[in-house]
Design a protein that fits this description.
The chain has about 210 residues and is α/β, with parallel strands linked by helices. It is about 30% helix and about 25% strand. The strands form 3 sheets. Strands 1-12-7-4-2-3 form a 6-stranded parallel beta sheet, sandwiched between helices. The protein has a 4-stranded mixed beta sheet with strand order 8-5-6-9. The relative contact order is 0.17.
């Protein structure tokens, strides 16, 4: 027997107590029924709260009435910033009429050379102005993390009050966590050098949100 096998064997014997099933059930029950901690008081207008918090974190925000208006809004934003009308997008938003607004949008994972990424989001959190993105074959995380500009489409019906609400929605709709859950609160930033905030140090230097509805 190797030293590794001996150590692991002792660990197994140590945790393999007679009441293991009972303790496991108690732990699971505690996680499911855990009480929420203190939370901020928010008014009923979650959209306004989300927008204000997102803008405070240096995101820019625009609004459209319907999904069909999104490509024109994206084209207008890119033109106003002097950015090229080319982007990569996640598959959940890839079927929009991008070409009709003069944009060249490829549905694929992003690479280093891509300058703009367009994604949807699972939901958004009003408390902190945060996007919640789930990784998966149709929603590669690179689209929101690699390009200098990240444009996120946010359905206002998917704005929840708190992070606890976001996780509750995730459990209800998905059951289990995906490989990665990314929380995005504005552009990437750091204050490591002389405590001066620099945007885009480790990811997008611009985050633009388009609220739909």
């Amino acid at each position: 027997m190797s030293a590794k096998d001996e150590i692991l064997g002792r660990v197994r014997r140590g945790v393999g107590k007679d009441d293991f099933a009972k303790r496991r059930a108690a732990a699971i029950a505690s996680l499911i029924s855990a009480e929420r901690g203190p939370q901020p008081v928010m008014n009923a207008d979650l959209v306004a709260r989300f927008r204000a918090k997102a803008e405070y974190l240096a995101s820019t925000v625009a609004g459209v009435a319907s999904l069909a208006e999104v490509p024109a809004a994206v084209a207008a934003y890119l033109a106003a910033k002097g950015l090229a009308g080319e982007a990569v997008a996640t598959a959940d938003v890839g079927s929009l009429d991008w070409a009709g607004s003069g944009l060249n949008v490829a549905v694929r994972a992003a690479v280093d050379a891509d300058k703009t990424g367009i994604s949807g989001c699972f939901c958004a959190i009003a408390e902190t102005g945060t996007l919640v993105l789930l990784s998966g074959p149709q929603t590669p995380a690179t689209v929101s993390l690699l390009p200098e500009t990240h444009i996120a489409l946010v359905d206002v019906s998917r704005i929840v009050a708190t992070m606890e609400d976001a996780f509750a929605l995730l459990r209800t709709e998905r059951g289990s966590l995906p490989r990665a859950v990314n929380f995005i609160s504005g552009p990437s930033r750091t204050g490591d050098i002389e405590q001066t905030i620099v945007l885009g140090a480790h990811g997008p230097c611009r985050v633009h949100l388009i609220l739909i509805g």
